[in-house]
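Entry type: protein chain
Record version: 2
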Amino acid sequence: MDIKIIEKLNPICEILGLLYMSNDYGNFEKMAIEQLSNEGINGEIFIKKNLRVIEKYVKAFDKYKVINDNEILFLGDNELEIFLILASVLINNNNIIENINGMTNEELKKLIIDVYNDQAEGNESVESIGDLRGIIDFLKEADISESSKWKMIAVLDAPKDYYIRLIRVINDNMKAYEEAYKAIGNHINKLLSDLIKYINSGKCEILNNIIEMPNQENVIIPTLAFGATFININNTYFVGLLVELIYKEKLKVMGNKGELVLKLKALSDKSKLEIITLLKSGHKYNLEIAEALGLSPATVSYHMGSLLEYGMVTIEKKQGKVYYFLNEPGLKNFMNELSNVLF
């Protein structure tokens, strides 16, 4: 796989992430503790030890933050997925900031739909949501909250106006980001260096199990604002600076058979086991799995993150769809590990 690692943070990504976290950092920390605890990690201890750098980052940003347009940012509860889709349009298309005045609503709407299709594996087109009725019909089926749907109607009806306002917010907060970076610059440099070594070592299992179309470059953008996440949008991978620390902590709490225990724990989840069983009949894409198992596409994506990390599935992108395959060598290796322990 051809990988290009951007060896610095992306200011647009960081500003948008910092705006999201600083809106309610207490709730962000609570969610982080809950998510870590679900992975078998003592969330409170891990955060005290490793996430204080993020808290300092957010507090330094918050001190200089300028925000007069809170409603457009999708900063409320359960709005992170929509926030990421709209933010990703800017992050993946830096030229929008310079050329926004010359762009049309249709061009921007197409960019939003392209990212949405990539994440939800849909096949929507600009033509299918060309008017307000088309937008409403499209959002009826979207896997988002009702309040988010109403906000998205306004965005898709006039995307140029939305992005002009969002770009203004980003420009207004560039100084806040620069001050936040200065506050923890040494920490960021160390985390960046460690992440790059981790990726180049070949030990990042999620990346190892991703198969892309031939002749396509895959770009990795490190992020501290989304420090514990791994997000893939159109062959761009936003990799949190803390993903290696979290993975090592998982292994540590599981003891000397850590990797094996994590794989067993993954398969103890009914939905993950059903996904593995379903893929025995052949490769499937997200919506096929969701419909077959009665899950939402977002839930399938969540489960696939774990199965990719533990080497049980691989993915391949074809014609705009992400297809999931059983990772037969990975599963055979798992069975051999288990057999060596039991017999």
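Comment: The mean pLDDT is 82.
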